[in-house]
Amino acid sequence: MTPFLKPDFIRPVAIGAAIFAALAFLPSLVDSYYMSLAISVVSFAVLATAWSMFSGPTRYISLATVVFFGIGAYTVAVLGEVMAFPLVLLCAGLAGTVVALLVGFSTLRLAGVYFVIFTFGLTELVRQVVSWYEVNVTREMGRYVFLDITQNDIYWQLLALFAVLLLTGFVLGRSRLGFALRIIGEDETVAKHCGIDVTRVKVALFVLSALFMTLTGAIIAPRWTYIDPVIAFNPMLSFQVVIMALLGGPRRLLGPLLGVIPLTLLFEVLTASFPNHFSILLGCVFMVIVYLLPGGVVGLYEKYRAPKKRTLSTDTETTRKSGEKTA
């Protein structure tokens, strides 16, 4: 029997499909405010899960999320009125893939703080290049986006993208590529001695992660009527995604979702109540999460669950030995 026909694969996929089918009816049940909130939750869920797909197993902290998100959004701003929207999404995906390949092959040999600094600097570099192009070539800063795409359409597209992302991550975790990534995350030297092409594996997953981020930016772009480099390439987005993923737990497929939902609601409150102090409060939230929950909610759960498992297995073994002695 192939792995995709086994019950432990079919059952979670069927449950997930039922949940997403139910979520598809949300627009008919809520008003525009909650619909807007749902779009924020789903978009952050895609970004945080895509980030964790690469950074979770490899333990590389990437701050380039907004680079690919911005590429997707700006592609829609440039091509949205001259091409059909599906073709625009295809162009955005291709652009994000090409940039991810260039970045991956040139930087994934770096590690630790050097990779973090590079990805953060890449965000500013791309933003400045786009700003220079707009000012010196097009002679205008920013673009208007007028597409016949409703809020409900954006929600359904993001929901479908999230479903594809979860299915991809689920299959990836059971594949040889996923196993290779876990070995790389534990020790790259051991991975190389096992015959794993470390650079190629990391680049492949980095590109896959970037593709989902790019498509998220492209899908959500019609939500705005105006896009400029400052909006599309706002580095704050990268930090928000990292915080959400770390709170939930980046080492598990559904872990980031546990951070996305509460933090999206919290950011909504902070933005409305303290608009001038949002960055400071975001930094405080980041420090609290890193200090109190270094492994995220999932890590905390597994930490307290492990001793109970050991105790149960010890009691079982003791009972078995006692039975053998009695016999």
UniProtKB/TrEMBL annotation:
InterPro entries noted in UniProt: ABC_transp_permease, LivM-like
Intracellular or extracellular location(s): Cell membrane
Chain ranges passing through the membrane: 9-27, 33-53, 60-79, 85-105, 112-134, 154-173, 203-224, 230-247, 254-274, 280-301
Keyword hit for Secreted: no
Keywords: Cell membrane, Membrane, Transmembrane, Transmembrane helix
Membrane association type: Multi-pass membrane protein
Principal cellular location given in the protein's record: membrane
Keyword GTP-binding: no
Pfam family, one: BPD_transp_2
Protein name: Branched-chain amino acid ABC transporter permease
Source organism of the structure: Thalassospira povalilytica
